[in-house]
Write a structure and sequence with these properties.
Layout (H helix, E strand, L loop, with lengths): L1 E5 L5 H9 L6 E2 L8 E2 L2 H7 L7 H5 L3 E5 L10 H20 L2 E6 L2 E6 L1
Parallel strand pairs: 1-4, 1-5, 2-3, 3-4
Antiparallel strand pairs: 5-6
Length: 114
């Protein structure tokens, strides 16, 4: 599994398409889809913060794309902070299990693992 992270609109999806040969038809927002690429992992966790139950399904994907939400304004609302915390912890586990981790910034990939 490859984990691709980066800021909002940083070029993550375009990178996955060009570097790994996936098309828009290969990318899904649904973790239970049979498509090889999951997009917007953070939105899944924002909707259901029980990230532990998703971990086995995420490992079945070829590529997981997540917007980096660790840099920015810390929400006042406790529930929002907890959601961000859940995304961060899940990304730590995914990065540990991934064969490759790529961070995209301004459309430029930086391989940080693998």
């Amino acid at each position: 599994m490859i984990l691709v992270i980066g800021g909002l609109s940083s070029g993550k999806r375009d990178y996955v398409k060009s570097e790994y040969g996936y098309s828009a038809d290969d990318i899904s927002f649904d973790i239970f889809s049979d498509k090889p690429v999951l997009y917007d992992l953070q939105e899944l966790i924002f909707t259901d913060a029980d990230s532990e139950r998703f971990f086995p399904e995420l490992l079945k994907k070829k590529v997981v794309i997540c917007s980096d939400i660790s840099c920015g304004i810390v929400p006042v609302d406790r529930a929002e902070r907890e959601k961000r915390e859940a995304v961060g912890r899940l990304c730590i586990r995914l990065a540990s299990a991934a064969e490759r981790v790529v961070r995209i910034q301004c459309g430029i990939p930086q391989i940080i693992k693998g």
